[in-house]
Design a protein that fits this description.
The complex is a heterodimer of chains A (about 260) and B (about 110). Chain A has helices spanning about 15-25, 30-45, 50-60, 60-75, 80-90, 90-105, 110-115, 120-130, 140-165, 180-185, 195-210, 215-235. By secondary structure, chain A is mainly α. Chain A is globular, with a radius of gyration of 20 Å. In chain B, helix 4 (about 70-85) runs antiparallel to helix 5. In chain B, strand 1 and strand 2 form a beta hairpin. The longest helix of chain B has 25 residues, at about 5-25. Classes of the chains: A mainly alpha (about 260), B mainly alpha (about 110).
Chain lengths: ~260, ~110
Amino acid sequence: MTVPSDTPETITRSGEWWAGARALAPMLLGVMPFGLIYGVLAVNAGMPAWLACAMSAIVFGGASQMILTQLWAAGTPALVVAFTVAMVNLRHALYSATIAASMAPLPRRWKALIAYLLTDEAFAAMTRRLGDSGPRARYRHWFYFGAGFSLWASWQVSTLAGVLVGAQVPHDWPLDFFLPLTFIGIIVPNLKHRSQIAAALVATALAVVCFAMPHKLGIMVAALGGIAAGMLLRGRDRDGTGRSAVGPSRQSDGKEHAA
Amino acid sequence: MSQMTLLWVFIGAGLATFLIRLSFIAVEGRVRLPAWFRTALQFVPAAMLSALIAPDLLMRDGALYLSPYNARLLAGLVAIVIAARTRSVGWTIAGGMAALIALETLI
């Protein structure tokens, strides 16, 4: 009835930790260069090296760190910067919702630890244990921890490497283009429903139209407009496909996402 | 903004990010969030990230720049095709960057 390798005795905390780290390992190919690029960008934008590294530890979210750097370099007011970063990371609420049930019995410090480590890639790795109800579920949080921690450590190391090389990279290289390319790589594979395409297109159009608004508030208007457009369209074609768009769409299959 | 202010921005943004990641994990089993809110959440990535990059690709000096000479727009379109085909962030970045450098040399 039980598979020998799955008996409760052979499943240990450290075993699960390493299994999590191994599940994450292939994604490091995408994360390490990304961290390097972030470090180079930050230093070239004029940010002191220690602050660039501090951001990686405090904010810990690749795409949002790039945006923060860009807005800061453009002289955007502090509150608008912080709010935009939070909006960029709002997608993580979806991941939180997805793993919440599996975390319910754990003590608070575990919930806080896993929440801090909950990035795109870590979530993708965590989904491997999500549906597990067998003996493995007992140490599932160690699997989460192993996946999250190895991503965290790699992110700090690659940021540091980027900060160190940063000064040597010529300023006329089109480094800032890495940001739109990264976002395209994250968005496009997940545009599976008409409603999601509508959300992206409406947000794009509004961002251009509202560009001149003060404090970069046009970004907020555009994002909210895109969300509204998506919800409207989804409401329309919900009949029969009611559950089609619910939940974290395809984020779960080990694609390279931004940290 | 001063270095101290920037550090406060990190702390504010970091705390907000942490609370977003903790949100559902913390309230699981205690609070039921409205369905419309969960629906709205799934459109956040596409809308937010599109809004952030649209000006980079479609504008120059604060004005709409739709032209065959707009190398960033063309390279962005190449990247969109690559992203749709390969579903890989790595290939999207590599291909888009190669396209931009090639176009800037040509134009």
